[in-house]
Every structure is written in structure tokens, then in C-alpha cells.
Amino acid sequence: MSVMKRLSGIVQAKANKVLDKAEDPRETLDLSYEKQLEQLQQVRKGVADVATARKRIELQAQQLQQSATKLQEQARQALAQNREDLAREALGRRAAIASQLDGLKSQHDQLVTQEEHLVATTQQLQTRVEAFRTQKETLKASYTAAQAQTKIGEAVSGISESMSDTGLAMSRAQDKIANMQARAGAVDELLASGALTDLSGSSDPLQAELDKGMKASQVDLELAQLKGQLGMAPPAPPAVGAPPTAAIGTAAPTQAEPSAPVDGSGAAGTTDGDTTDAVDGEPVSDEPRAPTDLFSLDQGAGA
Amino acid sequence: MIVRVLEEGQYEIDDANAEVVERLDTVLGDALRSGDEDTFSATLAAVLAEVRSTGRRVEDTTIVPSDLALPHPGATLAEVQALLADDAESAIDRR
């Protein structure tokens, strides 16, 4: 059987449920409308949940940035005291933060996409619910049992489809958030413990080796830069056999933050308990995105 | 004929173009049964492109049920199998 036919049957399944409950088709309209208002509230809450998850990641990125700044200063102090071993350790931790930020950035990007999509979906549903309300009153006013049944059935099926569709979108967003919770929790623990080494947890040994080499070369470069600043040594070219410095650029991502402020009109309206006339253009947008690039460190220790 | 693209919206398709969509739908079903991910992804992209290019977008204020529905753009074979599974309805209700 046709995939697309089956799928359309599934998204319409809700309509039948609602229709079964009412004997009078006019009652069906009201029942369906009640459901729509409930769904609108739920989807607004869904938008708020995604925004909360996004903000948590932004907060973590800020904290990691602060740690990186502190480690850089510690490296400087260590070198001033001729403790290259300590400086190396600090810069190593700083490099580990860079890879942690890299991971956060990709999660953040996904959440921003989900959030924008969900906001758009909610606005679409809101328009349709408003249209349904108008149509519902017209149908009730001109009601004659014989002809109205079909029209009511269509209207209810049509709007129920939209609700199912929105519900699916929300489920997917929530799945994404759930997947991120574990990792976000791990970052929180790391931040709390201060143990910012060996963060990658990479399951691929080869990649782990490559990352290690890349971090090591960055540490060498940053050491040389710091030494240069402190007048301890000529800004030495890379020693023979040292890893190519070209790899350094990839250790600290410099992607630009997709900063797309929405409209800054405040919270997502999740506490709106108005069910009598809820389709009132309640804004579903949220605060502007993080304005700066939270997810990359300054290039080099001397920046 | 009305086709819904999940998480995108509805399109109205003329009869002439509906045949193309239905033919691709058959290929999609075969790929789904045989678990051929590559064919599935390529066909899904093709049918999406067909619907978007030949269909007229149904206004958000027009409320009509669909005859056919397409998964959300970029859906994987596994995601669509899950949608079509018996518990699909509970997936919709899960909120």
C-alpha cells in the first residue's frame, strides 16, 4: 500500500477519535476546538523547553570561556615563574576546552534550528486554529444535518491533521533535547570538578590520537608565543620535526554565531491559562539569540 | 489532490502531476520494504521536489484534510518506519 496514503491515515487518526465522541456534529466542532487550544498551549511550552535547553548550553559555553581565560592567565604566570611544565598543563586543559566548545556548538546549532522551526510551526497552527474558529461558527449557524456532516468532518479532519503534524514536530524536538541532556550534565560535572582534561571521551582511538597531536602542536605554538611575549626566547620557528602548525587552526573553531534575534518580545507565553479565547496572537517568539560567538576560543595564547 | 508535507504544510496537486507523485510513492514503498536507504532518501527528495515545484501551497487559513502525506524533509528510513509502525499513534500522542 502506498506509503503516503498510510502516512496521511496516521496523521488523521486523531480526527476520528474526536469525531467518535460526539453524536451531534456541532458538538464535534466545539470538542475539536477545545483540543486545538490545549495543543496550542502544549506547543508553546515545547518552544519554551527548547529555549531553556539552548540557554543552558549558552551558559555552559560562557563558563567554559571563563575557565579558558583563567587557564591562559595561569599559563602566563607559570611561565613567568619558569614552570614550563605547569604552563603546558594549563594550555593542555585550555585546548581540551576548545574541543568541548566545539561539541556544544553543534548541539547549540541543532537547538536553534529546532526552536526556529517550532516557532514557525506554532504560528502556522495558530493561524489555522483561528480560521477554524471562524469556520466553526459559520457551520453551526447554517447547520442542517444532511449537508453539514460532511463539511464538519472535513474541517475537523483538516485541523486535526495540523495538530498531529505539530505534535510530531514537537516530539522530535523533545527527543533532541533528551539526547542532549546527558552530555550537558557531563559538562556541568566537569565544570564543577574543575577537571578539564581528557574530555573528549572519543570512542575512536585513531581520532583520539589525532586530536592529541593537534592539541600538542597548539600547546607548543602557544608556549612559543607566550615566551616571545615575555622576552624569554626568540619567537622561534617550529623545530625540525615539529607537527605542522597549519593544523592549529582547526583546534579552536572560529565559526560565526548565527545570531538571528527574533523579536525580543519576551517569554514564550507558556503560562497563559486563557482557554476561552486563546487564539489571540500570543507571541511565541523568545529572546534574541546569544549575540557573540560563545563557541570558539581566541586563537593562540597571546591573543 | 491535497498532499501534506509533514512539518511544512499542504500542497494542491493537479491530476496530471498526481500520477508522477503516485509513481514515486510506489518506489518509496518498495525501498521502505527492502530497507534500501539510498533509494529511499533519493526518492523522498525527488517526490518532495515534485510536490513543491508542481503543487500550489494551501493557505494556512484553508482547512482541508489531505489525501496523501509525506514525511518531514530529510526523514530517514528508520524514522518513517517508526511513523508507520503500529505504535505511530502513540508517538503522535506522546507529549
Oligomerization category of the chains in this entry: heterodimer
- How confident overall, as mean pLDDT of chain A? 73
Quote the beta fraction of chain A.
under 5%
Low-confidence stretches of chain A: 197-207, 241-278, 281-286
Overall residue-averaged pLDDT value of chain B: 88
**Major sheet description of chain A:** none
What is the N-to-C order of secondary-structure elements of chain B (H for helix, E for strand)? Answer: EEHHEEHH
Our measurement of the CA-to-CA distance between the termini of chain A, rounded to an integer number of angstroms, reads 63 Å
Rg of chain B, Å, rounded: 14 Å
Question: How much beta of chain B, percentage-wise?
Answer: 5-15%
Give the structural class of chain B. alpha+beta
Chain pair sharing the greatest interface:
A-B, 41 and 36 residues
Tally of individual helices of chain B: 4
Based on CA inertia axes, which overall geometry of chain A fits?
rod-shaped
Shape of chain B: globular
* Strand segment tally of chain B: 4
Terminal-residue CA separation of chain B: 31 Å
Give a count of the beta strands of chain A, DSSP E runs of length 2 or more.
0
Comma- or semicolon-separated keywords:
heterodimer; A: about 300 residues; 6 helices; B: about 100 residues; alpha+beta; about 55% helix
Task: Describe what you observe in this structure.
The complex is a heterodimer of chains A (303) and B (95). Chain A has helices at 3-11, 13-21, 25-80, 84-141, 145-193, 205-229. The radius of gyration of chain A is 28 Å and the shape is rod-shaped. With 303 residues, chain A is mainly alpha-helical. The longest helix of chain A has 58 residues, at 84-141. In chain A, α2 (13-21) crosses α5 (145-193), α3 (25-80) packs parallel to α5 (145-193) and α4 (84-141) runs antiparallel to α5. Chain B is α+β, with helices and mostly antiparallel strands. Chain B has one domain. Chain B has a 4-stranded mixed beta sheet with strand order 3-2-1-4, with helices on one face. In chain B, β1 (2-5) and β2 form a beta hairpin. In chain B, 36% of the residues are buried. Classes of the chains: A mainly alpha (303), B alpha+beta (95). Chain A binds chain B through residues 1-8, 10-15, 42, 46, 117, 121, 124, 127-128, 130-132, 135, 154-155, 157-159, 161-162, 164-165, 167-172, 174, and chain B through 3-4, 6-7, 9, 21-22, 25-26, 28-29, 32, 47, 60-72, 80, 83-84, 88-89, 91-95.
